[in-house]
Specification:
four-stranded antiparallel β-sheet, 15 helices, alpha/beta, 16 strands, five-stranded parallel β-sheet
Length: about 475
């Protein structure tokens, strides 16, 4: 498998460790608000990526942090007159619920920053001892970026730019360099604090992640992931901290960044009223639809979310579900005509092409295109296939979708609908077409459509019915 490494700017071979697990860390949320669909884009991608690695035989240890002590949490807690830890706890719980709802299950451990203060302090002391950190009296301890010659090697810059959505560079006129960032902030009234020999206070944002990864992975590990907006300064700060503390390079072998998620061409913003939380989206669309929407774009490319795109994705997912329903319908039908259709790609060819796509920088759009190509190739003639080919095709489609993290379920047609379908077929056979059409409309009102196939009528759910009563998860 080859992956694009943000650090080197090229695709590099991912080697399977022989005697240990592959170590992966992904930046998690800062729990001062509900997680939104931009967060979901990153977490769904890495969940899918790790699932596939395990499918390929990799052992994986996947850590995701949760920033539950931070300036943003403190500010919102003050606005809402709540304790910061209580506020962070509420949104942490909501985030974990969202992850469960999205069928994200590959994370080995969610590490809350507040639980790793001893590790944070140890790393700060190391940086102080080695001369990479300094104190500003009354404020806190800062990292001196001028002492780390490689600062900026990930993003190829050292200053903030307009697109840096999450900068959190701490302002203080007494800093040695404008880009210096806080490692430890001395306690202020009403803020969370820990009593330490460095002074009562709380950690800075960047130091939380390197302290957590050093705890679980040591000073070096395999893959670090996160949104592209975290590349600078957050990930630059992580590199500077850990490589300065340990003296070992590289801190991380491969850096993977997911692209931005826009809404109707605009950056998500509460002022624009286009801020979509995961919980709100799941009121209207199933988790499978959101996953398919995310994986329909290459992870490094931007996604421009819109209701139109979501509905198109719902239709694509319905195509997949309906085809599986057709396979089951054919398998259950006796006395069929069996035909051969030379020139079609065997299932094994699609399996191999799928592997090539996913092992080329995890190209999920190409992999999904192959799934739907296989459906399109077989859609017209599925009624005539012999049993072994049908079983092989079904196994390929279901196992691929499950490997990618979907949970497709066989549609269950209610007895009432089945009864109406049978009655309509009798009316058609008796050439009572007006009555048959009226019954078809009645079936449609119930949320189902009848497809007249070469082996008999087949009832399928309509997208509107799925929207009202999702049965995917």
């Amino acid at each position: 498998m080859y992956l694009y490494n943000t650090l080197s700017g090229k695709e590099e071979l991912l080697k399977k460790p022989l005697f240990r697990s592959l170590k992966i860390f992904v930046c998690g949320p800062t729990t001062y608000d509900y997680s939104h669909i931009g967060h979901a884009r990153t977490y769904i991608f890495f969940d899918t990526f790790v699932r596939y690695l395990k499918h390929r035989g990799f052992r994986v240890k996947y850590i995701q942090n949760i920033t539950d002590v931070d300036d943003k949490i403190i500010e919102r807690a003050k606005d809402e007159k709540k304790d910061p830890a209580e506020l962070a706890g509420i949104f942490t719980k909501e985030h974990l619920r969202n992850m469960k709802d999205l069928n994200i299950e590959s994370v080995t451990k969610y590490a809350r920053a507040s639980a790793y203060v001893p590790q944070i302090l140890k790393q700060i002391k190391t940086l102080l001892k080695k001369g990479f950190a300094y104190q500003i009296p009354g404020d806190g301890y800062y990292f001196d970026v001028s002492k780390f010659g490689d600062y900026g090697k990930l993003s190829h810059r050292t200053t903030l730019e307009a697109e840096d959505a999450v900068s959190r560079i701490d302002e203080n006129l007494k800093k040695r360099n404008k880009a210096d960032f806080a490692l430890w902030k001395f306690a202020k009234l009403g803020e969370p604090k820990w009593k330490t020999d460095l002074g009562d206070g709380r950690p800075g944002w960047h130091i939380e992640d390197t302290a957590i990864t050093e705890k679980f992975f040591g000073p070096q590990y395999d893959i670090h992931g996160g949104g592209i907006d975290l590349k600078f300064p957050h990930h630059e700060a992580e590199i500077a901290q850990q490589e300065s503390a340990s003296g070992k390079k590289p801190f991380v072998k491969i850096w993977m960044h997911t692209g931005f998620l826009l809404v109707d061409g605009e950056k998500m913003s509460k002022s624009l009223k286009n801020f979509i939380t995961i919980g709100d989206l799941l009121k209207d669309y199933s988790p499978n639809i959101l996953r398919l929407l995310v994986l329909g774009h290459h992870y490094r490319s931007p996604i421009d979310y819109s209701e139109k795109l979501a509905n198109q994705t719902r239709a694509a997912l319905q195509t997949f579900e309906d085809f599986l329903g057709k396979i089951d319908f054919v398998l259950e039908t006796k006395n069929r005509t069996i035909k051969n259709f030379p020139g079609q790609k065997p299932v094994k060819v699609f399996e191999n092409l799928m592997a090539f796509a996913l092992e080329d920088d995890f190209n999920t759009p190409q992999a999904l295109a192959l799934i739907f190509e296989s459906i399109g190739q077989n859609q017209e003639n599925v009624w005539y296939y012999e049993k072994n080919h049908l079983v092989s095709l079904k196994k390929f489609l279901e196992s691929t979708f499950e490997t990618l993290g979907f949970k497709p379920k066989k549609p269950v047609i209610p007895p009432e609908v089945k009864k109406f379908v049978a009655e309509r077929e009798l009316l058609r056979q008796n050439k009572q077409f007006a009555l048959a059409d009226a019954l078809r409309n009645k079936i449609r009102v119930l949320g189902y459509e009848v497809e007249d196939t070469p082996i008999g009528p087949l009832a399928l759910e309509t997208s509107n019915h799925k929207h009202q009563t999702p049965n995917l998860l």
